Amino acid sequence: MKTKELIVPLYLNEHGAADSPDGLTPCAQPDAAELALDCDRAGADALLVFDLSQGDSAHDAVIGQIRQITRAVDIPVYGGGNIRRAEDVKKLLYAGCRRVFLNYAKESNAALTKEVSERFGREKILACVSGAAELEAAKQQEPWLGGLVLLHSQDTENIAFSDCPDAWELYVHCPAGQAGLTLSCGRVSGVFADEFRNADFPLMEQKHRLREAGIPVNTFEPDLSWEQVKTGADGLLPVVVQDYRTLEVLMVAYMNREAFEATVRSGRMTYWSRSRQELWVKGLTSGHFQYVKELRIDCDNDTLLAKVAQVGAACHTGNRSCFYRTVLKKEYDETNPIRVFEDVFAVILDRRLHPKEGSYTNYLFDKGIDKILKKVGEEATEIVIAAKNPDPEEIKYEISDFLYHVMVLMAERGVSWEDITEELARR
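Below the sequence we write its predicted structure tokens.
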């Protein structure tokens, strides 16, 4: 059964996040990317971003904020607002939005539906409506729409969701207190409420209450019970904690049943402090919370591996990892692809910031974008030629040359490996 989504709406203008759809009052957290990340950590399933800007320059500023949001969060982002042409839809998709909604209060947006649907795919295009007339207009575009964003208003309260096409995903605006009632309708895929944006709103608790009421929502549901794990004589289970992106080992701690169940329910790593003999929510005093991404058990069921999103430092010393001291090391070549790409890219970025005499990288930066593009093209051609040669060594050499020049291009145009991997992951 497909889970239903609790979605946080974000209202953006060129100055940052606003508190309401009119865009007049700044949000308590105006930094859009930080606000989005807070919502992701709190348990939101998606973000619905409304561009409230007016004019091209303000629109571009909001697109920049959306790009920062999609880089910061792991959950899907649906975006719309200030769309005047198909190019604006492309900008939102290229900024990382999973879907784009068209404002059907504007006839010009409705008229774009077929064009953008055929160009980018029906599943990526939603209609945003706030009245029965707009809904009827959306139904006329059914073959080119993947879903509907239904804004709450008196005119939409009596709309029967069953009247909407079966293939549509329906996202409905409602007060947080009505989320359960709205989601209980089988046709509704998700709800969005302004209250979800409040840092004090217990989003994970809301999800657990909905699940207990029989509504399928995305909560942490472990595949094994505490009875299945093997603890030590003290009733504790060791937990190895790892950064979910870099796979760096951050720390080792311990859980008892209560800590395990609190972690599952809250989505924040909770341990049992052996020194204080009490439950310990990591980051409660320092702000360096650990948000659960994945929990794994070893082959003997006696050690847990936690992959987490770490805020700040994991170690009480202020170091990112508790394992910051080397006891013994044998020299070796780093071959982890992630580390190699990041390390080489870091050197290229450093050359750009701190030019070094005689550096080929700096030569390329000095010559500018046309020279860099010429080299990328030349190296791509070299790969084609090498591929005709049965010797794989030549291909490896040419691909390495190509990737280096692509990284120079990435640095020149402000694109990171994280941007690339996130884009590939979305495909």
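The chain has three domains: 5-212, 226-310, 337-426.
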